[in-house]
Amino acid sequence: MKKEFDFFDHPGNIKRIKRIFYLVLILLLVFEFFIHKHTTFPWESIPGFNALYGFLACVVIVFFSNALGYFLKKKEGYYD
Amino acid sequence: MTSGVPPGLIFLVGSLFIPFFQGHSKKALLLGLPLLGGISLFLIPEGINWGFDFFGHSLVLLRVDALSKAFGYIFVIMAFSGALFSLHVKDNKEHVAAFLYVGSSLGVVFAGDLLSLFIFWEMMAFSSVFLIWARGTQAAQGAGFRYVLVHILGGVFLLVGIVMYQSQTGSMAFDGMSLESWATYFIFFGFILNAAAPPLHAWLPDAYPEATVTGTVFLSAFTTKTAVYVLARSFAGTEILIWIGVMMTLYGIVWAILENDMRRILAYSIINQVGFMITGIGIGTQMALNGTISHAFCHILYKALLLMSAGAVLHMTGKTKCTDLGGLYKTMPLTLMFALVGAASISAFPLFSGFVSKAMVITASTQENMPFVWLMLTLASAGVFLHAGIKFPYFVFFAKDSGIRTQEPPNHMLWAMGLLSFLCIFLGVVPGVLYAILPFPVNFVPYTLDHVLSQLQLLAFSALAFFLLLPHLQRTKTISLDTDWFYRKGAQALVWFLNQPGVRIGNQFGKIFFEEIPRGLFWLSQNPLAAIQIGFEKLVVHVGRWAGSSQVKALEKKVKTEQSLYPGDQVYHWPIGTTVLWVTLFLLGSLLLYYL
To answer: What is the nearest CA distance from A16 to chain B, expressed in angstroms?
Structure first.
């Protein structure tokens, strides 16, 4: 029998992917100092603003959704 | 009535031939009609054609300009991809419904007057509902009925608006309007209902995920985008649309985050994406409208691609819930790859289609100096990646091994996904092709170092947030209430009310008026004198008992014997004198009445 493709089931591979991912994050922050930015709004000139904003946006969205989900989530047969 | 055939007509007429073909010739017809539509669209010169006089109103079936042509192109491309994806479907009804739906959507896009627009608008609702019902489940049947009822409501508003508009302006022409009279309010209501703007949106996430595997792919493309088209044509620059759009982008995300059904996640993400387009229409500058149209174009491609990959998973596994799925990367790697192209495109990764279109809307908000809109749209961009870009592929293809071992979907499905994947990347790499068909000249360079880096930072750190927050994102076997609660529970409450207190009151009413009162009258008429006597004596008994009289017992006994003997001898001892007295009294009464 052909061996199943199970690359993502190995913790070692996940660890490697994570390391690469963290490296990419750092590089993205470092690159910013080497390019010229066009800014309209004042906050755009803050280094790493988009990174921080993206991260915080997701945190806010997830917690807000979950708080709302506390009231909105119902068992699957709710309408039956 | 010259130059060119309305592309919608090709689909509407062509769909009628589908049942007469079988096997390969049917497949050829299904793919040939969109090709024919595309060629005819390509050859049509700009201008107004196919005008008719209809009871004094001028109908225009083929108004071709850059705006209608851009939507025409994407609708035809979508029809071709959708047809390719659904080649395996045996049920002719589904093919016919899909093509009627495409044809009527094209009819809306090329309609030059409000009356023919309305007719095609209604045809869209009534043809597309069959794509939902074709699933054959009870849930699909219910969702389909709710879908069509909501659209009938929207259609009624639209029609009322059109009639009022015609009587006020004397014109049926479909062009720019401003939101200033009841007529335009009604028309606007009809339009934004189809654009799925909350709270008028619940029909979309309610019905789309219940449709067939291929039906959802078609549905995702046409209804909301025709609404975007008509709003772009008639209400561009209407400020309230900015706020409706911004609200939509956020609303879609929140509900998509809570959702467990993969196709419902993507359905909510339609609301989010259409929000960007509606915001662009509200801003209304050339940059914003170009952004809206190109985003509609790209969105149709990648949303169809995402729903095709979800559809392929459903087709092969029969499951749609994230909690039941997972680990499919092992057996469906190609489907995963296509899903990832769709995910990268919707998340606006550089080199994918969403990047070159969404940025125009956001840039328009910068140019018009709307910091709040910019912040909200950027927040929503991060949220898109969260729910459609990572959540959907992660829970379906990775997360946990659900134990499902399946295989890739049929080849034609892979081809359809491959075609859309190619287009998503092609437009991302060569945006000039897309920009060339936009109605206004494009002064926008998507690929600047600055822009690419900001977007990558936004996305990468959103991904970081996703994986750090994964424990808070675990799927649960739940549904989330939405505004359809009001009519679903409302209808249940109405049915309960009619069944329980309603029927009970009705029964009681019937019993009193049709049984008890007639019975009483009949009883009374048997021997009125005795009856009155019994009644009077009963009253005396009651009063006596209340007063504590000692003679009550004897009287009670007497009443009982009288009741048991009733009606007894029906002796009519009415003395003649009494009768004469009554007659005299009546005569006196009438005399007085007339005299006065």
So the answer is: 15
